[in-house]
Amino acid sequence: MSPDPPIVLSVIVPSYDDAVLLRGCLRALAGQTRQPDELIVVDNGSHDDTAAVAQEFGATVVVEPQRGVLHATTAGFDAASGSILGRLDADSRPAPDWAARVVRRFDADPTLGGLTGTGEFYGRGPVWRFIGRYVYLGGYFLTMRLVLGRLPLFGSNFALRREVWQELRPRLHLDDPRAHDDLDITAVLSPETGVDFDHGLRVRVSARPFDDFAGFRRRATWAFHMLAVNLREIGWGHRIITCARGRRMRRRSRSGG
After folding, report:
1. CATH match of 9-255 with 3.90.1150.10
2. Which pTM was predicted?
3. In Å, how far are 15, 198, 219, 232 from 180, measured between CA atoms?
4. Helix (H), strand (E) counts: the chain
């Protein structure tokens, strides 16, 4: 029996007028202990030097003029050639072992379809950083798990197998201007898709969501909107039951049962 082909990691970074922060993200990726095999920056209609910064670091620039992070992520994932598709934001600062850890986790577990971690905030003061990690992100992971019946992906720090992306893509709400990529992808994942949380998958993210109340409120409003859209299509009870069944199937597969 021939061995499995080596994992090819593509990392996708959407950016809209984020050239300054993007430089920090790409610098962190350049310092990885295991370099990504492909680096894609999606220029989502920027007016700044986003494309030039991406090219400076040897990234492939994909232009997606239709605004919106779901459109940008979709364009980047569609253009990627890797067997594993990693996703960071322009303000993400992945730890030096981030790419190596992603590859190692997927290589070790064929039942793993998606991998995510949380974020440690930088900027602002220690109180806001604490609130960001344990209230804002902690609340996101808890609420989405209760409502959707499964572990959610965090947009600044996740990865998917290519075949998982190809399977879920037709169900994304690309026609909805308020769709956010991590929440929508989580909601349309097949119940059988195994998603793990890795505490060691470390990424620092900007505390700018707390810069103004209007921006924070917009994010929260869009999140509840997307929950409502997806729950109208597949109800809460059905999601809870099918996702629990999917987890049992995965446990049996991993144990050889």
Report:
1. no
2. 0.94
3. 14, 22, 9, 17
4. 10, 10
Residue 39: count other Cβ atoms within 10 Å of its Cβ: 21
Cβ(99)–Cβ(29) below 8 Å? yes
Q: How many CB atoms lie within 10 A of CB 175?
A: 6
Tens of pLDDT, residues 198-210: 999 999 999 987 8
Domain boundaries, the chain: 9-255
Tell which residue, 108, 101, 99, 106, has the closest CA to residue 28. Answer: 99
| Closest by Cα among 127, 88, 94, 118 to 210 | 127
Which amino acid appears at position 65 of this protein? Answer: P
Q: How far apart are the first and last CA of the chain?
A: 22
More confident residue, 124 or 233: 233
Residue 194's φ and ψ, nearest 5 degrees, are -80, 125
CA 20 to chain CA mean position, Å: 21
Give the angle 155-159-164 at the CA atoms, nearest 5°.
110
Q: How many residues does the chain have?
A: 257
For residue 197, the SS3 value is strand
Q: How far apart are CA 60 and CA 55, in angstroms?
A: 7
User: CB of 231 within 8 A of CB of 147?
Assistant: yes
Tens digit of each residue's pLDDT (9 = 90 or more) over 231-255: 999 999 999 999 999 999 999 988 7
Output b/e per residue, 64-93; b: 16+ Cβ within 10 A: beeebbbbbbbbbbebbebbbbbbbbbbbb
